[in-house]
Amino acid sequence: MEIKNEEVTFEEVGVANRPIISKTDLKGIITYVNTPFCKLAGYTKEELIGKPHNIIRHPDMPKEVFKQLWETIEKNQQWRGFIKNLRKDGKYYWVEAFIEPIFDENNKKIGYISVRKPVSEEDKQKYSKIYEEMRKEEQ
Question: Which range of residues forms the domain containing residue 89?
């Protein structure tokens, strides 16, 4: 896939004011996505279910962000952060993500749910710079 330096917004794909939701199993394999998630990511549900959630990971994202994310949710805590994701067509989109564990009726952890919302221009610029510095440190 050719990565394009072109942003897609929630408004452009018709999901403004709609929750963007996905669920995964304990290993990060997608078990559920809603229609707004598919529209934003540019994939069909069939293309996403059963795939690792990192199918939408943009190479601009530092590995450390996902390390912190996993360390947090594996401790049964909620994680909140800003993520630049990669669409199927090579374009990108930003989300503010809220991720937390899902428990069954016996209080056994069975997966994770993520709800996302749009990111302000100010936060996109702020986190682009932060993540660029983090990537330099990772090299």
Answer: 20-138
List the beta bridge partners of residue 113.
23, 100
Model pLDDT for residues 27-80, shown as the tens digit of each residue:
999 999 999 999 999 999 999 999 999 999 999 999 999 999 999 999 999 999
pTM over cut 0.85: yes
Residue 103 has, within 13 A of its CA and on its CB side, a CA count of 9
Q: Which helix (H) or strand (E) holds 92?
A: strand 92-103
Say how many domains are in the chain: 1
Tell whether 86 is covered by a domain.
yes
Taking only the tens place, the pLDDT of each residue in 105-125 is 999 999 999 999 999 999 999
CATH code, domain with 119: 3.30.450.20
**25 DSSP β-pair partners:** none
Q: What is the helix (H) or strand (E) element at residue 21, kind and residue range? A: strand 20-24
- Does some domain include residue 4? no
